[in-house]
Design a protein that fits this description.
201 residues; 6 helices
């Protein structure tokens, strides 16, 4: 924890990198916009291209993104068709030493394939705010419990993998917005007014 040496810590300038963004809905589009300020080349994949994103990124097919990106960040929804979209075959198409970020849904990544990719060096680093089978693990103190998730323990044992407890959303600003929007939507609904947060089945 207190190794302040430089060995093994050489970084890579993002301005010379290619970043792949998978999923360009509201969150993915925001990521693309912020990334554009760093001067990196941005590739995007989404079945439904976003015109705003096209100002900053080039849409390509998934295989092209996997093959060309130095870093890949996932922002796709947890739909059935996206289950294990990042599997052993996907890792095989990636550059050696690729950086993988998942702040979307754990089911997007085949955990066993990810472990193998980290062990082989195919994945040089991973930042995971969500993993498979994380239900009932987070948002409470389990420091004295044996966790029923061996994959999480394996991932956390790697020095080049960061696993956080699905809390990328947890900022003071976002919590305030969730409370305000929820209360505003309830009041609007009670008055028979339209609300952008209503879900109609």
């Amino acid at each position: 924890a207190q190794d302040f040496g430089l060995h093994g810590k050489l970084g890579k300038d993002i301005s010379t990198s290619t970043v792949g963004v998978i999923g360009t809905g509201r969150i993915g589009a925001t990521v693309v916009r912020h990334l554009s300020g760093f001067g990196c080349k941005i590739l995007a994949y989404d079945p439904y291209p976003n015109k705003e994103v096209q100002k900053y990124a080039t849409y390509v097919d998934l295989d092209t993104l996997l093959a060309q990106a130095d870093a890949i960040t996932l922002h796709a929804p947890g739909l059935k068709q996206n289950y294990h979209m990042i599997d052993a075959d996907a890792f095989a198409k990636m550059k050696d030493g690729v950086v993988l970020v998942n702040a979307a849904r754990g089911m997007l990544v085949d955990t066993q394939a990810l472990v193998a990719a980290v062990e082989s060096g195919k994945v040089g680093a991973a930042a995971l705010d969500t993993i498979e089978n994380e239900a009932d693990l987070y948002y409470r103190d389990l420091s004295r419990d044996v966790l029923p998730n061996r994959d999480r323990s394996v991932l956390m044992a790697f020095p080049n993998v960061i696993v956080s407890p699905h809390m990328a959303f947890y900022t003071a600003e976002d919590v305030r917005a969730m409370i305000f929007n929820s209360a505003s939507a309830l009041l609007a609904f009670s008055r028979g007014e339209d609300t952008p947060f209503e879900i109609r089945a």
